[in-house]
Amino acid sequence: xxxxxxxxxxxxxxxxxxxxxxxxxxxxxxxxxxxxxxxxxxxxxxxxxxxxxxxxxxxxxxxxxxxxxxxxxxxxxxxxxxxxxxxxxxxxxxxxxxxxxxxxxxxxxxxxxxxxxxxxxxxxxxxxxxxxxxxxxxxxxxxxxxxxxxxxxxxxxxxxxxxxxxxxxxxxxxxxxxxxxxxxxxxxxxxxxxxxxxxxxxxxxxxxxxxxxxxxxx
Length: 218
Ligand code: E4P
Prior knowledge:
- This protein is of the alpha/beta class and 218 residues long.
- Helices cover 55% and strands 17% of the residues.
C-alpha cells in the first residue's frame, strides 16, 4: 500500500520524505489555505515546491466547478510538473472533465467521493485515483471504511484500473483498516503514520537491551 501525506505543509512533507516512506502528497483548497498560500502564482509555486520534495504523485485540486474552467485549470496544473495529478470533484462536470483529461493523458484524482455509484462513474471516466472520504462518513455515523472495501471489490470484480485512495484518514487504526480492505493508497496526516511505530513492547524491549548493555559496559 502506498502512503501519501495529506497536507500542504512543507516541513511535514520534508519530514515524511526523510523517513523514506513517502509515495506522494494530496492537497485540497482547505489545506492550502491552512498554510496561508494565497494567489495563483504562489499556489503554483507551492505545488512545484511540493513536487520537488516528494518525487511522487502530488494531487492539486481545481477550483472551477464548470467543465471548461476545470479543463483550463487542469491543463495549467498538469504543466507545472509531471508529478501533478489533477484533483477534480465528483460532480457532473467533474466526471466529464475527468473523461477529457483521460483522453489528454492527464492523470486525475476524483475527490469528494461518498458512494459506490460515484466511484463507478469516476472509474468509467478513467480516473487515475478515486478518493472516498473515510473520516467524513464516520463523522455522520456511516461506515467510511466499508465504502473503501466496497470500491476495492467493485474495481477488482470489473477490472477497473482506477486506484483506490482512501482519504479523510483521521487516525492510525484507519491505516490498518486500509491494509485489511486492500486500498491501493492511504493519504494520511503525519501523526497517523508516526502512530504506526507505537508499541509498548518495542519501548520496554529497547529499554531492557540498553540497560543490559550498560551493566556490562561500565
Ligand atoms: C484528501 O484528498 C482529502 O482532501 C482529505 O483527506 C480530506 O480530509 P478531511 O476530511 O480530514 O478534511
